[in-house]
């Protein structure tokens, strides 16, 4: 087995990532997942487990981790890199990404998303369907900006944080490491690390 793109994680997000890769022209796409009996209504097969991929990673042209859990995704990405995997960066042809932004290795930008000038996106980040990341934002490693979420200019999002579906984050605010912003929340002030916030305006519900 050699060449092509290996995707670790064959769930819903994995299929979205595969569809993105297909749109980018990847001819050979192979899934790896610990759920050996996972059934995919797609043209792509599951070739083995996560351990199998660790043993074969260097044989692929590139690898991407398509796991929704932020911490797990980043840990798996770093583990794959340590065994010689080349990390893919996937930007859907129907995403709009400034040539003056930076998208890190192992990150994916899905259809309809926008990443504007001066934005810096770390490794293992998901900028999901229709999300917008405006000028000069910084997304640290392992962040997920969920579908339809909007970050105004100059927002900084800490490592492994989650910005929920349809959430809005005011310009030049800071979302601390490991924070969780609930679906539809409107963030108008900075959020400390590890906090979970919901509502409009966003308020803390759990540390």
UniProtKB/TrEMBL annotation:
Pfam families: PglD_N (PF17836). Acetyl-CoA binds at residue 144. It comes from the Bacteria. Substrate binds at residues 33-34, 68. Keywords: Acyltransferase, Transferase. The record marks 136 as: Increases basicity of active site His. Residues 5-76 form the PglD N-terminal domain. SUPFAM superfamilies: Trimeric LpxA-like enzymes. GO terms for molecular function: acyltransferase activity. The active site is at 135 (proton acceptor). Belongs to the transferase hexapeptide repeat family. This is Sugar O-acyltransferase, sialic acid O-acetyltransferase NeuD family. The lineage of its organism: Bacteria, Pseudomonadati, Pseudomonadota, Alphaproteobacteria, Hyphomicrobiales.
């Amino acid at each position: 087995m050699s060449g092509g793109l290996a995707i670790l994680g064959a769930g819903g997000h994995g299929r979205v990532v595969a569809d993105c890769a297909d749109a980018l022209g990847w001819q050979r796409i192979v899934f790896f997942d610990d759920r050996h009996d996972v059934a995919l209504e797609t043209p792509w097969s599951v070739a083995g487990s996560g351990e199998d991929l660790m043993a074969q990673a260097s044989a692929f042209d590139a690898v991407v981790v398509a796991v929704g859990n932020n911490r797990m995704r980043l840990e798996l990405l770093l583990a794959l890199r340590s065994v010689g995997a080349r990390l893919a960066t996937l930007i859907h042809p129907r995403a709009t990404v400034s040539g003056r932004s930076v998208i890190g290795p192992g990150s994916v930008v899905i259809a309809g998303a926008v990443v504007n000038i001066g934005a810096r996106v770390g490794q293992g980040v998901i900028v999901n369907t229709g999300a917008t990341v405006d000028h000069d934002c910084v997304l640290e490693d392992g962040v997920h900006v969920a579908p339809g979420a909007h970050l105004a200019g100059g927002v900084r999002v800490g490592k492994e944080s989650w910005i929920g579906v349809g959430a809005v984050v005011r310009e030049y605010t800071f979302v601390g490491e490991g924070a969780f912003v609930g679906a539809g929340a409107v963030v108008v002030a900075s959020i400390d690390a590890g906090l979970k916030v919901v509502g409009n305006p966003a308020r803390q519900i759990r540390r």
